[in-house]
Amino acid sequence: MLGALVALASCIGVGTNTPEKHPDLKWTNGGSSVSGSIVVDSNWRWTHIKGETKNCYDGNLWSDKYCPDAATCGKNCVLEGADYSGTYGVTTSGDAATLKFVTHGQYSTNVGSRLYLLKDEKTYQMFNLVGKEFTFTVDVSNLPCGLNGALYFVQMDSDGGMAKYPDNQAGAKYGTGYCDAQCPTDLKFINGIPNSDGWKPQKNDKNSGNGKYGSCCSEMDIWEANSMATAYTPHVCDKLEQTRCSGSACGQNGGGDRFSSSCDPDGCDFNSWRMGNKTFWGPGLIVDTKKPVQVVTQFVGSGGSVTEIKRKYVQGGKVIDNSMTNIAAMSKQYNSVSDEFCQAQKKAFGDNDSFTKHGGFRQLGATLSKGHVLVLSLWDDHDVNMLWLDSVYPTNSNKPGADRGPCKTSSGVPSDVESQNADSTVKYSDIRFGAIDSTYSK
Ligand SMILES: *[C@@H]1O[C@H](CO)[C@@H](O)[C@H](O)[C@H]1NC(C)=O
Ligand SMILES: *[C@@H]1O[C@H](CO)[C@@H](O)[C@H](O)[C@H]1NC(C)=O
Fold it and tell me: Which residue stretches does the UniProt record annotate as biased composition, category Polar residues (predicted)?
C-alpha cells in the first residue's frame, strides 16, 4: 500500500515544447515490408519543470530544488519530445537509420544515442529470435577505435514499463524502460520513474551520473563493432523480465563486485580477432569495413530452446562464413556460439564463466522466447575506453584472450574521440527478420 502511494506521487509526465515525432524506419518481416519507427531513450531527453523551461536535470546533476526526492521530482518534471536530427544527430530514410556521434545543437552538445524500434506510437516491436534469423546491413567505415556502433536486443517491456509502473506516463513513446545485463545505474529514469535519489555525478563524464537503482535484464548483443573490431555476445540473467536492483545486486555499478548481480556481465563473446583471426574483420580485410556489409545471425532452435548462434557476412554478393577459432589452448575449433564454445573459451582464457553460471543457452532460449526489443546505438566508453572490444585488455596482459583488436591501448579516450572523431557515424539499414536462410541471397 505504501509502495502504491509513493508511486502515485512520482508520476513523470511529458512536455509540450516539442511534439514527439518518431522517425520512420522500414524493415522486412518474413518477406513483407513493415512501416516502423524509432524512438530515442528517455535518458537523452530534456527534463524540465512542467510548463516552464527550467531544467530538472542539467549536465550530470538533478536539480536540488525540483528533485529533492524521486517522488517530488516526478511530480514537478516532464520528459520532452525530441528533435531527432537537430539535437541527437539521428536521421532516417526509407530502411536506413544514421546515428551521428557528436551533435552540436542549439542548446546542448549531444554525444551518441540509443534508440528502440517501435511497432506503433506507444509500443515497442517485440522479436522472438528463437529458430529465426536476424539480418541487417551496417556501414562502419566511419567508426574509428573507441566507438561502438551497437545493434542488440534486450528484454524490455513492450510498453516501456507503463503497466508495471502505473506512474510512468511517458512509456515507450518517450523511450522508457531500458535494462541490460550490466544492470546500469546511470539511468535517469527506471521505467519512467526518476532515479534521482542518491544520484552521484560521474567524475569523468559531464553528462552522466549514477542513481541508487539499476535496471537488469537479459541482453543479446547481435553486434558491437567499429571498423577495427567486432563481437557478438549473449548475456543472460536469472530473472526472465526487467528487474530493478539496488546496491550490490546491481553488480559493479551498484558498488558490488563484477559478478554480484543476477545477470552475467561478461557474456559469451565471439570476436574474430580475439578468437585468433587477425585478418578477418577490418579495412581491406576479408570482411572489408571500408564498405557496407550485410550481417546475418541465426538462432538455431525451436520453442523455448536455442542451441547455437551462427554468423555469416555477405559482401560484394559473396557469403562469408564466420571465421574459425584459432586458439592453441582450445582443443576444438568453432565458428559459432554455443554452450560448448562458451565453456571452452572461458577455460582457455581463464575468464570467470558467469554465462554458464547464470544458465547459459538454457536461459538464453527462455529469455529470447519471451520477446526482446531491438536497440540501435552509438556510444563511447567512459569506463575503459572500449579497449575490451578493440585493443589489449587488461592493457598490461599478455594472457590468451587479452588481445581483442588492433587499436592502441591509449585509444578510445572519450575526450579524444569526442573532439577528434566528432563527425563519426554508423548507418544501419535493411533490417530483415524471418526463417533461417530466408533473409539474404546465397
Ligand atoms: C567469479 O564469479 C564469482 C561469482 O559468480 C565470484 O564469487 C568470484 O569472485 C569471481 N572470480 C573472479 C576471479 O573474478
Ligand atoms: C582467417 O579467416 C579466413 C577466412 O575464414 C581464413 O582463410 C584464414 O585462414 C583465417 N586465418 C587464421 C589465422 O585462422
Answer: 408-423
Confirm whether 256 is domain-assigned. yes
Task: Please count the structural domains in the chain.
Answer: 1
Q: Which residue has the cell 523511450?
A: 175
Q: What is the DSSP string of 1-46?
A: -HHHHHHHHT-BEE-SSS---PPEEEEEETTEEEEEEEEE-GGGS-
Ranges of the chain with pLDDT below 50 = 1-9
Q: Is residue 67 part of a domain?
A: no
State which of 257, 260, 347, 354 you would mutate to test the pocket of ligand 1, scoring each by most atoms of that ligand within 8 A of its C-beta: 257
In a domain? residue 375: yes
Work out which ligand 2 atom sits closest to the CA atom of 323: 5
The pLDDT of residue 10 is: 63
Q: Which domain, by its residues, includes 385?
A: 26-40+84-435
The helices-and-strands tally (H runs, E runs) of the chain is 8, 31
What are the DSSP calls for 69-129, one per residue?
Answer: SHHHHHHHEEEPP--HHHHH-EEEETTEEEEESEEE-SS-EEE-EEEEEEEETTEEPEE--
Question: Side-chain half-sphere of 182: how many Cα atoms within 13 Å?
Answer: 10
Phi/psi of residue 206, each to 5°? Answer: -75, -5
Per-residue three-class SS string for 234-267: EECECCCCCEEEEHHHHHHHHCCCCCCCCECCCC
Q: Does residue 63 belong to any structural domain of this protein?
A: no
Determine the pLDDT at residue 107. 86
Q: Which of 429, 374, 434, 431 is nearest to 123 (CA)?
A: 374
Assign residue 193 the CATH number of its domain.
Answer: 2.70.100.10
Rounded Cα distance, 408 and 89, in Å: 28
| Structural contact between residues 105 and 46, judged by C-beta atoms closer than 8 angstroms | no
Identify which of 235, 259, 351 to mutate to test ligand 1's pocket (most ligand atoms within 8 A of the CB). Answer: 259
Cα–Cα distance list, 5 to 71, 167, 197, 272 (Å): 10, 10, 17, 52
pLDDT at 3: 42
